[in-house]
Structure formats: structure tokens, C-alpha cells
Design goal:
The complex is a heterodimer of chains A (about 300) and B (about 280).
Chain A (H helix, E strand, L loop, with lengths): L4 H28 L26 H8 L1 H32 L6 H9 L6 H12 L6 H17 L5 H5 L12 H28 L4 H9 L4 H29 L3 H7 L7 H9 L3 H28 L4
Chain B lengths: L3 H4 L1 H28 L4 H4 L13 H4 L1 H5 L1 H32 L5 H12 L7 H11 L6 H25 L3 H9 L4 H12 L1 H17 L3 H4 L8 H7 L8 H21 L1 H9 L5
Classes of the chains: A mainly alpha (about 300), B mainly alpha (about 280).
């Protein structure tokens, strides 16, 4: 057996498995996106079986592009993903710099901080939307109720009571409406992924060139200008990677959306595909192809960046 | 990082306090989940029992009765374990070949593998349902969940193993070749003992990802092979019902993984950034 054959044989199972996994379902999606295919139709029962005779060309794509839901889902996906990105990167940078020094109990602080990342998405959503954000029974509701009672009590206060009379009664926010449930999703996912950003920034901070910093300190550079001129450029690459990896994960966000906003209109692309899948497979497939294109645009940048560091 | 404040007395108190504060804020929701799990359903929604209540274990002792917890937990354990084992079984030889006998195409193959991970799952939801339900008849089986979990994690497994294997000096492997050791012997007697730590952390991380997976495990199962993700998803409480028991089952669902996670924070960086951040 030559030097070349054996390595090829060893990697064949992995390559073949992934090839099937990628090609078979995706080519089916592509096929379904060009035909009329619905799961239930009493008027046109022939559309209920996938067949080339139901060819629709680009009709499904046209249908999807004209659907109000589609543009809302894209907009909402982008809104949710970019808000999460901004929150996690800013918080992540701040926290990473803060704990990248020695202090008592640093190990425990790290363990506490990283924990949210390991919570399963379904539990994350259930925990936040019920126990924390519920407007009546969650911590939010209880806190708002408590504040209102406090202010009510202070209204009866002699002399200063008039001041509290001017205060409005606080209303708890319901996080189950279309817009607010997007905020709830952003909050819970940012909570889960900030630790990830912290971890990566910290790993990168530890490889920062100390001698450069010492030179800068000797030259009288302030900590802030050191942070802006040395640390931030050093972190440019990890920031880019955090942004891209999160984009890929969050574009396909599903469990949180499903749990927080079932039926209230707060949808993203995967959720919309799920809705279409209950009947209109043609439209679901066309939407799926759009989702693939969107993910690919980001993936190309990420792959390039990873590829550069691959062989060194 | 040496900043001015670190040298001052105030900074010595201020910064650690701030760090501790932030860490506690981030941990608070988990703490609250565990805390609520010791309240009865009735107490859990009463403000007067917010902090002081009579703790009870009834939510945990009734977990089987209320949610059939152990069934879902067993499914999670079975599927995550076997998916991890299979992924390693396929991944170790592949990563070995790519690390020690790279060809012109190795880099492209690795990149392509990674790109499969980036396909949005939802795009192939219907084909997967169709294939497994109507065509292969494996919908809602352990086999299917194991297969899918293995496939979606295979790229990460191979990448992680590849970065670990690359750190082993090539000479060691080549020397054994001279001595006439077979490939299988090489993997078994030289590679695996040398890269044991790397393989173990790859396995741990893969297990965590499998456990927490919440798309395919929910959409490709109904009852028989349903995992903990599906259990929680199916029982999201409507408007404050059953906070106590829901907290208990959620705590039981995340506890093993959060604790496992504490042991592999470092590998997480490597596993999720594909070696691009060191």
C-alpha cells in the first residue's frame, strides 16, 4: 500500500458521511423550491406529491419575496443578531479586561461567569421568560409591584408626600408581544454568549506582548490610550471571529424564538421556514435557500480567516 | 494587564469587587433557577416567599411523576454518549491521516468540512423529516438522533483533533513506521496515548454540544427518542404555572452539563474557534 492510499482510506468515512449529509437534503430542498408542493390541498391533490410535472420555476422564490412575513423575518433576524453581537462584544471586552488580572477568587469568578454558556437553550428561554421576565409572577413583576407599593406608602408621608404623588405608577413590561419578545430573546442569548466572548478575549489577552505595554507605560501613555492603541488592535482578530461565529449560530436561532414567541409574530428565518413547513413545502424550501445564501456570505469571511491560521 | 489603578489601594479593592459583582450578576439566573426549584409551585409565585420559604424536595421527588424525567434523561445520555463515540471513531483516523500525511487537498477538505457546519439546519428541515419518516422509517429513533448529532459535530471533532495531533512531533510517528508498526498499531499504541488529553477534551466538548442541541432533537423526535431539550420545550409553562416543578426539572437537565463545562473551559476556545484564537 502506497503512502497516499492509506491516509485517503482513513479519511474516507468522514468525507463520505459529511458529503451525504450535506448533499442529499440540500439538493432535495433545491428541488422542492422549484416545484409546487403542499402537504394538504383538497382542490389540487396532485400538488401533494413532489413531481417534476408540478414545476413552478422561480415562482416559489417570487412568492416568498412578495410575502410580508419574509421581509419582516429577515429584518427581525438581522435586528436580533446585530443587537446580540453589539452587546456580547462590548460586554465581553469590558469583562475580559476587568478579570485579566490577579485578584482573590479569580478562579471562582471565571467559573461563575462561564456557566451560562453551558445552559441548554430550551432551559435558558424557559427560565428567562417565566421566572425572570414574567410581568406578574416573574422577578420583573415582583420588583415592579414592590416599587409601586413602596411609592404608595411614601405618598402618605407628611410634608414630602406631594413629591411622590407626582410619580407615575410603574407598569411591568410584557415580554410576550411581537417587539418586546425580540428584546427578551436578545437579552437571554446575550446572557448566554457574553461568557463565550469573554473567554475568547481573555485567551487572546494573555498572548498580548507585555514588553510593548511596559514600553508604553514608560513613555507615559495612559491606560486608556494603551487600551485603544495596543489592546484593541491586538483583539481585532478575536473580535472578528467572535462576530462571525456568533452570526452563524444566531442566524439559526430557534429554541429561544419558539419558546418565547410562539404565535405572537416575532419570527426569524428558521421560524418562518418552520411555519411554511406545516403546509407549503415549496415556499419553505425557497426560504431555506435564501437562508443558505445568507449564511454563506458570512461563512466565506470566517473560513478565509480560519484558513489563514490553519497551516501554521 | 498593568494599569494605574492596580497600583493604588483603592483599585485593589474596587476592581476585584466589580469583577465579583459582574460574575454574580451573570450567575444569578442559574442560582435563581436552582433556588426556585426548592419552592412548592404555590410558594414560587408568592412575593412574600421570595427569599424566605420552607424548602422542599417534592419537586425533585415528583419529577418522574410530573415529567417522566428519567426517560428523557436516559435518551439524552444514550444519544449524546453514542454520538460522541461514533464521532471520535470516524474522526480520529481522519484527523490522524490529515495531520501526519497531509496532501495538497487536506486544507481544502478541512475547510469544506467546516462549511457543512455552517449550513442553516432549518433549510433542510422538510427533506430530513421526509427522508426519515417516509423513506427510511427511522423518524423518532435513537439511531437517527445519534446519527444526526454525530454528523453535526463531526467537523468540530475533526478540527479539534487535528489541532491536537499537529502538536505531536512527526518524528515519533515516522520512527514507529521504520520499526514496522502497522497503522492501526500506530494509532492505538502511539497516537492515542500521546494525544489522550486532547481526545478526552474533544469528547467532553462534543458531549456537551450533543446534550444541548435543540433543533434536530426537537424536530426529528416525538416520544421514543425525545431528549431533555424536547422535554423542556414541550413543557414551557404558560404564564407562571408550575414554576417550582419546572425549575426542578430544568435544574436536573442542566446540572450535569454545567458542571462538566467547568472542566473544559479552555478547550471550549479551541473547539469553537477552530484553532484560530490562541
Amino acid at each position: 500500500m502506497s503512502d497516499r492510499t492509506l491516509p485517503r482510506i482513513l479519511q474516507t468515512p468522514a468525507v463520505v458521511l459529511l458529503l451525504i449529509w450535506m448533499l442529499v437534503p440540500l439538493s432535495m430542498t433545491l428541488y422542492f423550491s422549484f416545484i409546487r408542493y403542499v402537504l394538504n390541498s383538497s382542490i389540487r391533490p396532485e400538488w401533494m406529491t413532489p413531481s417534476l410535472s408540478n414545476w413552478r420555476g422561480l415562482g416559489n422564490y417570487q412568492y416568498v419575496l412578495n410575502a410580508k412575513d419574509f421581509w419582516f423575518a429577515i429584518q427581525n433576524s438581522v435586528f436580533i443578531v446585530s443587537s446580540i453581537l453589539i452587546l456580547t462584544v462590548v460586554l465581553g471586552l469590558g469583562i475580559a479586561v476587568l478579570i485579566n488580572r490577579n485578584f482573590p477568587g479569580r478562579g471562582i469568578v471565571r467559573v461563575l461567569l462561564i456557566s451560562p454558556f453551558f445552559v441548554m437553550p430550551a432551559v435558558n428561554a424557559v427560565l428567562w421568560i417565566n421566572m425572570i421576565l414574567d410581568p406578574v409572577l416573574g422577578l420583573q413583576g415582583i420588583a415592579v409591584g414592590g416599587l409601586n407599593n413602596l411609592i404608595d406608602g411614601l405618598r402618605d408621608f407628611p410634608v414630602l408626600g406631594w413629591f411622590f404623588d407626582l410619580w407615575p405608577k410603574l407598569e411591568p413590561i410584557s415580554f410576550r408581544a411581537t417587539q418586546t419578545s425580540a428584546y427578551a430573546v436578545i437579552m437571554m442569548v446575550a446572557w448566554q454568549w457574553t461568557p463565550f466572548a469573554v473567554l475568547i478575549f481573555m485567551t487572546s489577552l494573555q498572548s498580548e506582548d507585555e514588553s510593548q505595554r511596559e514600553a508604553a507605560t514608560l513613555d507615559g501613555a495612559s491606560p486608556w490610550s494603551q487600551f485603544i492603541n495596543l489592546t484593541v488592535p491586538h483583539l481585532a482578530r478575536p473580535i472578528a471571529i467572535v462576530v462571525m461565529i456568533q452570526s452563524i449560530f444566531h442566524l439559526s436561532l430557534y429554541a429561544e424564538i419558539e419558546i418565547v414567541s410562539r404565535g405572537n409574530g416575532n419570527k426569524n428565518l428558521p421560524y418562518l421556514i418552520g411555519e411554511f413547513t406545516s403546509n407549503n413545502i415549496g415556499a419553505a424550501s425557497a426560504t431555506g435557500i435564501f437562508a443558505v445564501i445568507l449564511a454563506n456570505i458570512i461563512a466565506i469571511f470566517l473560513l478565509r480567516m480560519v484558513g489563514k491560521s490553519l497551516m501554521d | 494587564m498593568a494599569t494605574v489603578s492596580q497600583n493604588s489601594k483603592l483599585g485593589n479593592i474596587l476592581w476585584p469587587t466589580l469583577a465579583w459583582g459582574i460574575a454574580l450578576v451573570f450567575f444569578f439566573p442559574i442560582f435563581w433557577l436552582v433556588f426556585t426549584s426548592f419552592k412548592t409551585d404555590a410558594d414560587a409565585v408568592k412575593p412574600e416567599f421570595l427569599f424566605f420559604f420552607t424548602p422542599t424536595l417534592e419537586n425533585y421527588t415528583n419529577m418522574t411523576e410530573n415529567y417522566d424525567y428519567w426517560r428523557f434523561a436516559t435518551n439524552s445520555v444514550i444519544t449524546s454518549t453514542f454520538a460522541t463515540i461514533f464521532a471520535l471513531f470516524v474522526g480520529v483516523p481522519a484527523a490522524y491521516a490529515m495531520a501526519f500525511n497531509p496532501s495538497r487537498h487536506t486544507k481544502d477538505i478541512l475547510m469544506w468540512m467546516l462549511s457543512t457546519k455552517m449550513l442553516p439546519a432549518a433549510a433542510v428541515l422538510y427533506p430530513m423529516t421526509f427522508l426519515t419518516k417516509n423513506f427510511l422509517g427511522i423518524f423518532d429513533t435513537h439511531f437517527l438522533v445519534i446519527l444526526v448529532l454525530c454528523l453535526i459535530n463531526l467537523p468540530i471533532v475533526i478540527w479539534m483533533l487535528f489541532t491536537y495531533f499537529k502538536e505531536i512531533p512527526k518524528e515519533i510517528i515516522e520512527a514507529s513506521k521504520m520499526d514496522g508498526v502497522t497503522t492501526w498499531g500506530e494509532i492505538k499504541d502511539i497516537l492515542i496515548p500521546l494525544a489522550w488529553g486532547g481526545i478526552a477534551s474533544t469528547a467532553l466538548l462534543t458531549f456537551i454540544f450533543c446534550w444541548n442541541e435543540a433543533y434536530w432533537t426537537v424536530r426529528l423526535t416525538t416520544i421514543d427518542a425525545a431528549t431533555l431539550s424536547k422535554l423542556i420545550e414541550g413543557n414551557r409553562a404558560p404564564e407562571g404555572l408550575f414554576f417550582g416543578r419546572l425549575s426542578a426539572v430544568s435544574t436536573a437537565a442542566i446540572a450535569p452539563i454545567v458542571i462538566l463545562g467547568w472542566f473544559c473551559q479552555k478547550q471550549l476556545v479551541q473547539g469553537l474557534t477552530f484553532g484560530a484564537v490562541k
